[in-house]
Amino acid sequence: MEELVLSAIQSRILLALLLEGPLSSSRILRVVGISGSSWAKEKRFLVSFGLLDCRVSRELTERGVIRKMEFLLTKRGKQVSQSLLIISDSITSKLRAQRIEQLVPTVVA
Predict the structure, then answer these.
(1) Which of 8, 25, 36, 67 has its C-alpha lying 20 to 30 A from 42's C-alpha?
(2) What is the pLDDT of residue 2?
(3) Is position 74 within any domain?
(4) 60 forms bridges with which residues in the sheet?
């Protein structure tokens, strides 16, 4: 079995989808801050590992029928994203505590 190793960009995509819900490609580009070519590559990777799913719908507008694509997390994708969020929170809280200790010297009685 292949071992899944996520890059920083892939992690940001998963967290964005976890925190904001289903997103369109253009919204993902803005939220995550990546280019369209990077998104195309990362999208293929995340879909191939079963973390991301695409929902296609058609919508009737004044200008005609448009096709909408939204990306959402699979069940496995949600589990991975939640784990990433817990790890991230743990790291930042430890760093925050260390920073406070550096700023506020402890008083020895």
Answers:
(1) 67
(2) 64
(3) yes
(4) 65
Q: Structural domain tally of the chain?
A: 1
For residue 86, is it within any domain? yes
Judged by DSSP in three states, 75 sits in helix
Burial class (CB in 10 A: 0-12, 13-18, 19+), 65: exposed
Domain of 39: which CATH number?
A: 1.10.10.10
For 30-36, what is the mean pLDDT?
92
Residues 88-99: tens digit of each pLDDT: 888 887 777 777
DSSP string of 19-38, one letter each residue: HH-SB-HHHHIIIII--HHH
Letter for the amino acid at 19? L
Q: H helices of 1-109, where?
A: 8-20, 25-28, 36-48, 75-103
